[in-house]
Design a protein that fits this description.
two-stranded antiparallel ribbon, 19 helices, 4 strands
Length: 569
């Protein structure tokens, strides 16, 4: 590890923290329906959308109606994206003449983008037409991200309101998030990326002469626009198979910094929205503090493992100070490659600038653990906040058990119903990860896709189901996922990992909104100080450790000790 590497990491963290309050204030105004800097231009457009859709934004919904609206919208998005993939050969804006996407791959891709996972069992530039990329994938990048943010705000309203049966209007939240937040910021990011060298056109592949006299087709297209929302919405699906390691997606060091900040910006700012809406910004900073502590621990662990490298290579006489450069983005080095790997798995983004499959065993353990914790270390836009708030409910329940008092959180009494719903939500992801991995490693069809044997091969399968169920989308790419087994299996894991958390969470929001707010008393456990931050981070680690430590021991931990003993696979 180097001082320069840590300075780059700290610069990134400082920029994210600096954006929390101003962006949080703007988001609060947007979701409260208050006037903001964009209102003069966008309010007429917003009202026009409501008239066109027949939506009355002022009519609020109960949690069940909100959930049904969200499910109906996502079902329509899935069917549309599936259809456009299957029909792309006869649709326009297909300059490379792409064939229809096979049924199982189209199913996996449609589920992936609707659930904000963006797992890709295909090479984008060799599989999808420009129309499918723009009208299918990019649209879902916007609306799946907007859905997650809207759901987080709905849960925050549950904490903030008292004795009401409504938590907002899904259609209004969706429109406001897309129109006031995602679109304008994405336009700015896209222009920055074009300035830095990312293409933005509708052209077909360009033929280039190689050094040996051959011809190479270099794909291009509407890259900058998809790249912007891919990062801002924590989607992660690359226009190119190489994702953000491709120089068209990520041309310079500045574009790399912009992309990393974009991944965390909204997720971090939503903690401030929580504090503002419940009337105590310290509550938001406490949640962000727990997220930040887990994030910095992950960065330190991953960076240290990669900087130390593989002792087997050191034994061959290679310079140990070079660390593990296998699969790294050579333009940015070990520090930023490690940072990007932790950012993209702490948030449910999945974009990559380095090959996660080439990380050292302990370096690869960190991205897996980030996802297995529930992707609540900043997390996906919206999903990170509501995931962490579920853990906050569990943390105050544990604290209440310790002192024999009914737990409270931001003035709301946490009772049996909320704790049961939290348990249902938290158990959904482990069921898919461990169940899917177990099925894959005992079946011939699951094992046939593995590149490697031993614990690393197990880690490849574990990573795949972890990434799918956590709605991340990155991969240990030694696994060939474009098979019927993995297209369907991972698709199911994505659906359960998204919606089986959302539905209990919305039920909790409805339950909390109906309760009165209790004033603090001498027996109230303070939830905006260092003690609560430590408790919250501890509960996250304990739940994750108890659930997943055995699987990690079979994969990256076993591989680490095998590496130290000189064993290779």
């Amino acid at each position: 590890m180097t001082i320069n590497g840590w300075l780059q990491i700290l610069l990134f963290a400082a920029i994210v923290v600096a954006l929390v309050k101003p962006l949080g204030a703007y988001l609060t105004h947007v979701f409260n329906g208050e006037r903001n800097v964009a209102s003069p231009v966008l309010v007429p457009l917003e009202r026009g959308f409501y008239r066109l859709a027949g939506v009355r934004a002022e009519t609020e919904q109960s949690w069940l109606v909100y959930a049904l609206a969200m499910l109906a919208f996502n079902l329509a998005g899935f069917l549309f994206l599936y259809a456009i993939q299957r029909l792309q050969a006869v649709l326009p804006i297909n300059p490379a003449g792409m064939a229809p996407v096979p049924a199982d791959l189209a199913f996996n891709t449609a589920v992936s983008f609707v659930t904000n996972t963006n797992w890709q069992n295909y090479a984008g530039e060799a599989t999808l037409s420009h129309l499918t990329q723009m009208l299918g994938l990019t649209v879902q990048n916007f609306v799946s991200a907007a859905t997650g943010i809207a759901l987080a705000v709905a849960l925050v309203r549950g904490f903030a309101r008292r004795q009401v049966r409504t938590i907002g209007n899904f259609w209004a939240d969706l429109v406001r998030c897309t129109l006031y937040v995602l679109l304008p910021i994405s336009v700015v990011i896209a222009l920055v990326l074009v300035w830095q060298g990312a293409p933005q056109n509708l052209s077909g592949p360009v033929a280039a002469a190689t050094l040996d006299g051959g011809q190479q087709a270099i794909a291009q297209g509407p890259v900058a626009s998809q790249e912007a929302i891919k990062m801002l919405g924590t989607n992660g699906g690359g226009f190119f198979n190489a994702n953000s390691a491709h120089p068209y997606e990520n041309p310079t060091a500045l574009s790399n910094l912009v992309q990393m900040v974009a991944i965390f910006a909204i997720g971090a700012a939503l903690t401030n929205v929580f504090g503002r809406m419940v009337g105590d910004q310290l509550q938001g900073w406490a949640v962000l503090g727990a997220m930040g502590a887990l994030f910095l621990a992950g960065v330190a662990a991953c960076y240290a493992a990669e900087a130390y490298g593989n002792p087997l290579l050191t034994a061959l006489g290679l310079d140990p100070s070079a660390g593990n450069m296998e699969g790294k983005e050579v333009r940015f080095g070990i520090a930023l490659s490690s940072l990007f790997a932790v950012i993209t798995t702490a948030a449910s983004c999945g974009a990559v600038i380095a090959m996660h499959d080439a990380l050292t065993p302990l370096g690869g353990l960190v991205p897996i653990a980030n996802m297995q914790l529930g992707e609540i270390v900043i997390g996906g836009v919206g999903a990170g906040l509501y995931g962490m708030l579920l853990f906050a409910i569990l943390a105050v329940f544990v604290a209440g058990l310790m002192v024999g008092r009914t737990p409270e959180y931001v003035g709301k009494k946490i009772e049996q119903r909320e704790v049961k719903l939290v348990a249902l939500a938290i158990l959904a992801v482990p069921l898919m990860i461990l169940g899917g991995t177990a099925l894959a490693v005992v079946t011939e069809t699951g094992l046939s896709s593995l590149q490697d044997s031993g614990p690393h091969g197990f880690s490849e399968v574990l990573y795949a189901f972890t990434s799918a169920a956590a709605n991340n989308g990155s991969a240990f790419a030694g696994l060939s996922g474009n098979t019927l087994f993995y297209n369907v299996g991972l698709g199911i894991a994505m659906l359960v990992g998204r919606f089986f958390i959302i539905l209990p969470m919305l039920a909790i929001a409805g339950s909390l909104a109906a309760k009165t707010t209790l004033p603090p008393s001498l027996g109230t456990f303070p939830t905006h100080g260092g003690l609560f931050v430590a408790l919250l981070a501890g509960v996250v680690l304990i739940v994750g450790g108890l659930t997943f430590l055995p699987s990690l021991a079979l994969g990256p931990v076993a591989e680490h000790f095998a590496m130290l003993s000189g064993t290779t696979y």
